[in-house]
Fold:
Amino acid sequence: MAAKNFKILGIDTSCDDTCAALLEVNNRQVKILSNVVSSQVKLHQKYGGVYPFLAKREHQKNLPLVFKKAVKDAAEIDLIGVTAGPGLEPCLWQGINFAKDLAEKIKKPLILVNHIEAHILANFIDRELASIKFPAICLVVSGGHTGLILMKDIGKYKLIGETRDDAAGECFDKVARILDLSYPGGPAIAAAAAKLQITNYKLQITLPRPMINQKNYDFSFSGLKTAVLYNYRTQPEKIRKSKKYVRAMCSETQQAVIDVLIRKTLKAARDYKVKSIILGGGVAANEELRKQFKKKAEVFVPSKVFCTDNAAMVALTAFFHRSDNFKSIKAESNLRI
Ligand code: KG4
Ligand code: ZN
Structure:
């Protein structure tokens, strides 16, 4: 007898996107029935960053709409997964409460999902489970996190290094703000860097590669942002507002981040003798990072829509943990893997 199609609803409100997705798993095949992301970018653009209480209000408003778009018939849902952390606490609670009420209404189990684990497991959305061999080293790079995680299996993780200050995506967002580019900074920086023409590249900018030669697996990106700020302040108005300067600065910032991420990840992969390297998180959508990583090693990386925040990864993570028994429900803004 064929196994029943199992339908999982995922919900994520950890930051500024309201996300709901419906996955169907059948014979280990994952099918995405819907993947809805309602972005608040326009709202937060004015401030150059996310305002948690504004984001919370938007989640409250958007959740019923996003859910309706993602799910045609709530009676079909077998399981619900919701992000419980890490993230912005007022935002997390919106998703949790919505999911909890729904679970009670349709009498289906609710699973609390770790957002960082979901970014890692996003790699299994459109890939065979067996194609990734363990142990693996995972680089999770997003707006809130930058960490290296040793993964022995699904559900078995050890954090071996993380950022001591700003996350890589946060660094991009802050540098974009200095250079008067739009929010979120990562895609804006990548686009400006891609326009740099080396032929008329007269502005030589060299930024630091923080902690690149240190033996540990930690990162630090706040000094990089400060180096950009100092350089920017020393330039005459005419130069720093020029496209050439902005593009050169974006290119060098992006390269500095990429150099550090690749070097440290490959070092961890060698030291721990892993069989696979996995990337995840919003910054893993960066084209140059993907390209340069692939030149150096075989890496697994989700397609771009599953790198940035989405609920399909949350639904899949819930599916993997469906037998776990969570006794209490809590939003944990600092939840660790
Ligand atoms: O995973 P994500 O959507 O949210 C968090 O969990 O934080 O990551 C958002 C971060 C932002 O800092 C954004 O600037 C960055 O990912 N990002 C990128 C790109 N797309 C998003 N950074 C570099 N290049 C990109 N293409
Ligand atoms: Zn994320």
User: Anything to note?
Assistant: The longest strand covers residues 29-39.
